[in-house]
Amino acid sequence: MKITIYSSQPYDRKYFLEANKNFGHQLIFHEARLEPNTVELARGSDAVCAFVNDDIGEITIEALKAIGVPMIAMRCAGYNNVDLRIADKLGIHVVRVPAYSPYAVAEHTVALMLSLNRKIHRAYSRVRDGNFCLQGLTGFDMHGKTVGIIGTGRIGSIVTDILQGFGCNVLAFDTIESEVLKSKGVQYLPLNDLLAQVDIISFHCPLTPETFHLINEESLALMKDGVMIINTSRGAIVDASAAIKGLKSGKIAHLGLDVYEQEGDLFFHDLSDTIIRDDVFERLLTFPNVLVTGHQGFFTEEALVNIANTTLENIACYGDDKPLQNVLHLDQAIAR
Ligand code: NAI
Description:
The chain is an alpha/beta fold. It has 2 domains: about 1-100 and about 300-330, NAD(P)-binding Rossmann-like Domain (Rossmann fold, 3-Layer(aba) Sandwich); about 100-290, 3-Layer(aba) Sandwich (Rossmann fold), CATH 3.40.50. It contains 12 helices and 12 strands. Strand 10, helix 10 (about 240-250) and strand 11 form a beta-alpha-beta unit. The longest helix is centred in the C-terminal third of the chain and has 19 residues, at about 300-320. The two termini are about 30 Å apart. The model has no long low-confidence stretch (mean pLDDT about 95). The structure holds 1,4-dihydronicotinamide adenine dinucleotide. 1,4-dihydronicotinamide adenine dinucleotide (NAI) binds near residues 78, 156, 232 and 297. 1,4-dihydronicotinamide adenine dinucleotide binds next to helix 4 and helix 6.
């Protein structure tokens, strides 16, 4: 199978080439994102492989159809950037990697919490500068704190387990409640009740119209002063302008982001020589109590191996006329 891999970075090349020793596909790597004006690069391919910030909306999918590409293989779990309705209408298969390492994202989530709490990002710079003063580095015990988990699927469940290990009280909100988590003492609450009670809130739900800008001025008003907000899910769950207001007023005492609504123009590239024109993002970076990582929650050795193997296997099933694995169906489409 000839596969055109978009948005590829050196590490994608490394892990896909290694995994491909077991498959023998023809892999063509491009740094460019998949979007309407890069579709042509995939002419003659049996599948395109795309990532979180590619534009796989109506125009792109129609263009793929026009050049005869029958499959879109997402090398990620989230698929909010794919218009499944159009893909279904045009008979283009969409596959993904539903779970490559929920531990990777869950552990990164907790890393953000602990770093912000104990101000590791500031301590690192101070000590290297010969400044051993502790003033301003006060943290708090995680033990006994109430944490709200929004979305208790694969990643949210693991975050819950880790936090319960710290002695946190975990409250949850999900459209589907987990009996396993309930048996471990997790209490599900209506969203607004949860917002009012938590010291820390962490997002592990998909981006949908219901979760778009779930953190906004109204929801922030319901929360305790000094709340910690962590988002490793999808950027648009947090309205960044509302978060800036919350940071300025002290409503938000800590903000940890691995994702950002406009990250498509920023993340996964070295922009250190350029002027970043996103003033909202730049303002966020000025706060000492904000920690941003560039969508690296998934980025572990184990996850990269699993992503490459599962993606190539998903495509091989199609080539070998076997039942498709990890296929996204119309009923999973996210309303737009
Ligand atoms: P999952 O599908 O196992 O769990 C998602 C949970 O969210 C489910 O329990 C679902 O019922 C719940 N949910 C759906 N709509 C909801 C709503 N409106 N309100 C509250 N809960 C809702 O997904 P998984 O594997 O745990 O991943 C969660 C999210 O993490 C993904 O959607 C993706 O956006 C993000 N992610 C981020 C990565 C990173 O590198 N930062 C890597 C992988 C995933």
